[in-house]
Amino acid sequence: MKYGYFDDQEKEYIITTPDTPLPWINYLGSENFFSLMSNTGGGYSFYKDAKLLRLTRYRYNNVPLDSNGHYYYINDNGTVWNPGWQPSQTPLDSYECRHGLGYTCYSGTKNKVKASVTAFVPLHDSCEIHKVTLENASDAPKDFSLYSYVEFCLWNAMDDMTNFQRNLSTGEIEVEGSVIYHKTEYRERRNHYAYYAVNAEIDGFDTDRNTFVGTYGSNKEPVMVGKNSSGNSMASGWSPIGSHRLSIHLEPGEAKELIFVLGYAENPDDKKWSAPNIINKEPSKSVLDKYSTSAQVNEAILSLKKHWERLLSTYSVSMSDEKAARMVNIWNQYQCMVTFNMSRSASYYESGTGRGMGFRDSCQDLLGFVHMIPERARERIIDIASTQFEDGSAYHQYQPLTKKGNLDIGSGFNDDPLWLIAGVSAYIRETGDWDILKESVPFDNDETKSQSLMEHLRRSFGFTKNNLGPHGLPLIGRADWNDCLNLNCFSTEPGESFQTTGPSEGPVAESIMIAGMYVKYGKEYATICRMTGLEEEALKAEESVKEVYDAVLKSGWDGKWFLRAYDAFGEKVGSKECEEGQIFIEPQGFCVMGGIGISEGLAEKALDSVKEHLDTPYGIVILQPAYSTYQKHLGEITSYPPGYKENAGIFCHNNPWITIAETMIGRGNRAFEVYRRTCPAYIEEISEIHKTEPYVYSQMIAGKDAKNFGEAKNSWLTGTAAWTFVSISQYILGIRPGFHGLIVDPCLPDSIEEFTAIRKFRGADYHIQVRKSKHGEPKAFLVDGMSMEGNEVPFEEGKKEYHITVVLP
Asked: Domain Glycosyl hydrolase 94 catalytic: where (predicted)?
């Protein structure tokens, strides 16, 4: 069943019932300040780093689900309710939530009072704004109270959840007029604070949670809201909050708007430590003055919408399949941008306290957003490369605030280095900015060990080249893309296990998936070398790539599909010889994407095997048969119950690899079939099964071996977003950047006869029309009316417009 519907004109998903199968969220913010907001007002905010600079508190294991957020309570003659339904859950006479691009609007009506909240993070300012509109829809005057509510986090979200013996004595609050200042730990070592304000005189406030909620109360109906009063409490230790109380009088038909601002501020550098317990209020006052009226806020919303229109205009398509067009034009690109901002750090499944920015994650995410914000992609590449070690390996994760490698996770994931080549190649093809290769970039953020970015790529390529196993295939290290396939966690003597910690343990296990990556991205590295005048290096790279290509054919082919790996004992993984885990999806996708086996006729066999063994109505599972018991020599992959996550779940991230591989052998119908099965717009009708948001991709869907087959988890922050956008935009529709210009090479299904697209590329607009041949019309490729050989339109410096017509046979 459906719980809402798409409004493509407004670029919104409209939710019509509050009790969705799971909280359906949106992300507010695009620069430094971010908020997660559910369809009922739940969520939290942070500045840059969800762990170290958390403004508001959120409880992931809370019951009722999603019952902490930025809330508004109305007490209307004893009836307490919220415009977003949560947390009071008072039945509403009407409800609606509109998730848009960088903003969320939700509204509710009760007893002829309508309350609506428009929430967003404005461009260039570190705050979250709520425009609250109250309307009297009755024919009599209305008097009621409105309460705001946020619960402050004590900045370090992990410490906030654990160090109670200290934290319950540190809370500090200051109130000045209608502004509540959260300055906990300001006196000790920080130069920042939070503030929460409303642009109206208040009738009361509370800053102490126990006073507002009640020591044994809950935010379902706080004590002070029930009393229709305020305690004017000043938090001292314990748990600081921010709550304003306003008495509202509305005549029949009258509406009133209030502006609430939750913000982050810092003392200017020259005043950091001059007065350790006195905050400098000027930074917050300047923001509050900037957003003190409805007109100012409306202008900021308009600017935000124009910002997103500009970003999405880089790639837009028109075709008869409105669901595919909806995803390409709006939601897939939007999710790519959110994933760029967050990596895997902060969602309703990632607490923001553990993982930071992933090395492999960020490189892959770049594939989906580089066309929209190439300048920020450039910055991200430098950040990623700076966490690399001199031998070409890298920290697996780094923290967004410090941009330093995460020591807790370390390195040793042997696919990581090759992803840097993938990201840099995508950036250069998009922008033509070859100068980035000359940028001086440190190793391990040590400026004394800086080398050119080209040298970083050289080390990336060399790391894999220098770490091949007994079969001439790349060593897997701790793991490859599949973090849970831990083949080197145990000694080479069966039955003798040992836990390892470093990147060079167990140098026997080999990965066929990394082999596919090496062939694919090794070719791109060779092209980069050649185009920068390094012909000899290019030839050597191609020679090394050919050796691994041959090794895959010799030792990585299992008769009908590619093997997954060789374990620490030299035994096959992902083979017909295995009792379980006979076939994996990853090498079938990446080997074919690298071109392995296409000319030998093996690619088609491998992809046919995927369809035969791994297909389900909800997507392609990662492996079959599922592992039924824990197997030490395979690691964490076997720790999951059958059908979940890496143990035969539908890992949506790698389904696009199959889509792309299918286009490489010209099977458009199959490519589109794979695309549709995990695409949110096509599975909106089964939201009661799927459960996660019907407008964004999820990381995982429970596989056919699982009890809850078809149920999704881990939505929003997933490499699925970038890879799926690449699969549909660059391979099915076929519009992708090349080193010399824009390539137009579609592989369409029968259901798409034609389409038009506008692609902005290197400062020019490309107007593209693609149609299938009718009545024997010959194949054609026209650029500005002139026939052209090939499918790559050469870029011409200074030219601002291209008109391309493609007639497919």
From this structure: 307-734
pTM: 0.95
Contact 740/792 with Cβ under 8 angstroms?
yes
CATH 2.60.420.10 spans which residues of the chain?
735-808
Structure tokens at 792: 């790559």
What is the CATH architecture assignment of 331-732?
Alpha/alpha barrel (1.50)
Determine what percent of the chain is predicted with pLDDT higher than 70.
96
User: Are the CB atoms for 135 and 42 separated by under 8 Å?
Assistant: no
* Cα–Cα distance measured from residue 23 to residue 382, given in angstroms and rounded to the nearest whole number: 36
Architecture of domain 4-309: Distorted Sandwich (2.70)
Contact criterion met (CB below 8 Å) for 412 and 486: no
H or E stretch covering 598: none
d(CA 352, CA 155): 12
Q: How far is CA 200 from CA 149, 203, 247, 256, 288, in A?
A: 16, 10, 11, 11, 12
Q: In angstroms, rounded to a whole number, what is the distance separating the alpha carbons of residues 356 and 370?
A: 20
Amino acid type, 617: P
Other CB atoms within 10 Å distance of the CB of residue 753: 14
Query: How many angstroms separate the CA atoms of 331 and 681, rounded?
Result: 9
Sheet holding 741-744, edge to edge: 735-737, 741-744, 792-794
φ, ψ (nearest 5 deg) of residue 293? -125, 160
**Rounded-to-integer distance, Cα 698 and Cα 724, Å:** 11
Query: Do 527 and 421 form a contact (C-beta atoms < 8 A)?
Result: no
Q: Do 297 and 117 touch, CB atoms closer than 8 A?
A: no
Whether 475 contacts 469, CB under 8 Å: yes
User: For 747-795, how does the pLDDT look when each residue is reduced to its tens digit (9 = 90+)?
Assistant: 999 999 999 999 999 999 999 999 999 888 899 999 999 999 999 999 9
Catalytic residue IDs: 483
Compute the radius of gyration of the chain from its Cα atoms. 28
Burial class (CB in 10 A: 0-12, 13-18, 19+), 254: middle
What is the tens place of the pLDDT at every residue in 90-142? 999 999 999 999 999 999 999 999 999 999 999 999 999 999 999 999 999 99
CATH, domain 735-808, list 3.40.50.300, 1.10.600.10, 2.60.420.10, 3.40.30.10: 2.60.420.10
Ranges for all domains in the chain classified under CATH 2.70.98.40: 4-309
State the DSSP string of 326-391. HIIIIIHHHHHHHHHHHTTSBSSSSBSSS--EEHHHHHHHHHHHTTT-HHHHHHHHHHHHTTB-TT
Asked if pLDDT for residue 409 goes beyond 90, the answer is: no
Per-residue HEC secondary structure of 393-424 comes to CECCEECCCCCCECCCCCCCECCHHHHHHHHH
Closest among 10, 64, 63, 55 to 29, alpha carbons compared: 55
Nearest to 87 by CA among 40, 119, 43, 45: 40
> What separation in angstroms does the CA of 562 have from each of 286, 522, 606, 629?
61, 19, 7, 24
d(CA 604, CA 698): 28
Cα separation, 132 vs 130, in Å, equals 6
Distance CA 6, CA 325 (A): 12
Angle value at C-alpha 620, between 614 and 624, nearest 5 degrees: 35
